Amino acid sequence: MDRTEQIRRLPLALAVALRLHEAGADQTLIAAALAIEPDGVDPLLQLARAKLDRIARREPDQGDEA
Fold it and tell me: 14 and which of 8, 21, 48, 61 could share a cystine (Cβ 3.0–4.6 Å)?
């Protein structure tokens, strides 16, 4: 599974935060896009990366449901 597909499997807010961050958006813009406080962006990105890592490591025979 490629990275685009992995990101697509994230919850929407996490996928949006990660895509915006990777596109160079700052915390203020990401926070505004998600209607959260700027201080919440870093923890959200950490969660997104952790979930993305879990998706990437998932064994193929475990299926797509998680």
Answer: 48
Q: Is the pLDDT of residue 61 over 70?
A: no
Closest CA to 58 of 6, 19, 4: 6
All domains in the chain, ordered by first residue? 3-59 (1.10.10)
pLDDT in tens, 14-46: 999 999 999 999 999 999 999 999 999 999 999
pTM exceeds 0.70: yes
